[in-house]
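Supplementary Methods, section 5.1.

A reviewer requested that the exact input to the structure prediction be made available. We therefore reproduce it here, unchanged from the version used in the analyses.
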Amino acid sequence: MTTLTFAPAAEIRGGVATIQLHDDLWRITRPDGEVLGYVERSTTPAGPRFLAKRMLQRQRRFLPIGEFWDFGAAMECFRF
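The structure derived from this sequence is encoded token-by-token as follows.
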């Protein structure tokens, strides 16, 4: 059986803050407000998936960095 893990609406942990923008999208920032990227939830037949996208400020685009079954795993991409 698959365990479903959903993300919090807003939280700071491990030096990274999350802000839920709507049901399926979270902005990931540093505590000082610098935007690191986004995590987007999609629904699949096997359950929810979480796509982590790094924001490339200078290029004004996003770089997909991984797709995960768990929100926490997607968040790990932004910790450094």
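The chain has a mean pLDDT of 84. These observations are discussed further in the main text.
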